[in-house]
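TA notes. Do not distribute before section.
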Amino acid sequence: MTRTYHDLFAKQHLEALLGPVGTVTTSRKVISETREIDVWFVPHPEPQSTLNQLGILGRMVRQSCAIEPFHNAVQSHEIDSCIGKRVNVTEELRRQAKRETQSLSEQDLPRLWILSPTVSKRTLQGFSAVVLKNWPKGFYFLPTEQRTAVVALHQLPVTEETLWLRLMARGKVQRQAISELLALSINHPMRQNTIEHLAVLRINLNVVQNLNKDERALAMNLSPVYEKWRQETLQEGRQEGRQEGRQEGRQEGERSLVLRLLSRRIGNLTPNVVSRVEALSLPQLEMLGEALLDFTSLDDLMAWLQANP
């Protein structure tokens, strides 16, 4: 599978988890050339209790860092490339500090976390990576001055502390993590956004023609979370309908689901467009729910509304 779909989920997933506790920049450009860091994170200066809810991920991001997730086993040249981007960003920060006559402490220098389902012993040996006893199994640290670690997601212990990382794994490891996610309390602060991002990934895969083997396996992994998200979204809409005294609870649920799907497919909707969707009958909403999977822009939605007055 290409990195596109995995990148999309990983960036959204990390942005949602880390947004409350710091500044997240996805696809951060590196000035030396046209290259991007997948996720660049700067924590808020004040202590954040939310970091503890992120388990080991919260521990990883207590200082500025670059996070590079890979869907397939990371290769040596890819680690080289990631380190190069970290070095460039570090130099950029040093130049900025010099211009502003400030000093950079060790804590101010960014770390690099490379997330990979697996990593070969040969690759780890080539980079002199070592295990540190105060970190879980699956963490491999390069020499201190590199400020870099490779995280083998499939080696992580199966605990809630590692859940948010294991969701970015693949195969049975991701499947297990999804089961744990669905088992969390519906009131868990991280649960709903994560389920929605996974559901959107499933929707995006659903419209792709000729999925390869990896993509088909990923789509199968995501089917339970999509069904759970759809069920809970419909229920949420029905509850809203009952709270407002409406008799058409099913229609309200379908309306809520369609509007959320539309916003994910084509972006924010104007009040006028929302009003037009809200005015649709239940059969029309169900038809739109199927049709919108093929939409790529607002023009597609407007054309559908025009054809289905």
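Switch to the second chain here.
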Amino acid sequence: MTTPTAISPAPVLMPRSLRQTAIGILVVGHLLVAACALADLDRFFANWLVLFVFAATIGIGALFLVALEYVVNARWSIPFRRLSEHLAGLIPVSLLLAIPLFLGMHHLYEWTHADVVAADPILTQKSAYLNIPFFAVRFALYYLIWLLFYRLFTRLSQEQDRSGDEALPRRGIKLAPPFIILFAFTMSFAAIDWMMSITPHWFSTMFGPSAAVGGIVGGLALLTLVSAQLKIQGMLPERIGPDHFYNLGALLFGLNTLWTYMSFSEFMLIWYSNLPLEMTWYLQRQEHGWSLVTLLLVFGRFVIPFLALLSRPSKMNLNRLRWVSILLLATYGLHLYWVVLPGIPHLHDGPFSWMDLGFPLTAIGYGLFAWIWRSSRAALVAARDPRLESGLSFHL
């Protein structure tokens, strides 16, 4: 057993300017969000749903990366695991963001209107699943599972910082497989509940799995952005070098390509079958200006990142990793916007409005506060992990 390298297990306080920036962004964001609520409640709740899903899925995706690191036991990823734990702090933050959604369900989901359900045979048949009490029970179950494993993984990691017990990583290895299995089911069903049920007549068996992989890509993009930024600022150990970032970039490249493959396969099969009930969902996103958003997603979510990370040197270039990660996060939010808003009847008329501007700012502000909160509680690297020395010594 190798001895862990001499790295302090103490938390690293983020600069005061970061907190001030987060406060400023949140103030501006909330003012714009409040203006949107006053102008158009339907648009407010639709955008808030996008904000909530963005924060929740990225946090859960980051927790998936923690579990994946334990399962595969790869050397290169050991120094990044604590950063993933910090980013998973978006899970409890997103739970608070869910409160307005329960107040605005009637603005988002037509199956919450008893008169609409009674007049629609399809919705009547689905009413045993699509009803507010069962929706709330499923929601509570998802978060009970996610928060439980979030607590178990982070407590395990922080206990290791205090005690240095070399047996603790084995407990993480035992926890990880059950979480990965539960992640697949809960993320898939949550995507169906939160987003697909906006258009309850439409269905796709690939929607849930594709959303789960999308959340992992979002979590990985945020991890890559934070890791590259911290490395540039000299806040990560010097021994975390180009070989570590190459693997981080390669994983981002591969998973984003997988998400693109799943999304295109879903579209191709539905388009090829040419059934009106299934095609309606995509037709809504090809009319009234939404085709422009579709085109932006094709290039911003796949073509540009694919070409930017294709070569080996590009995966070691910290500046390139940063801007590609920012692009993927921005287009992930745009993709959720593209999924949600056209399904709301009068919002189908066209994308982009001044009323949408406050929600990305609010997401950034809450994300910064989640990072400041988590990084103040534990070090950026799991200093007393017995495998850390092996991880820092990794070379391709």
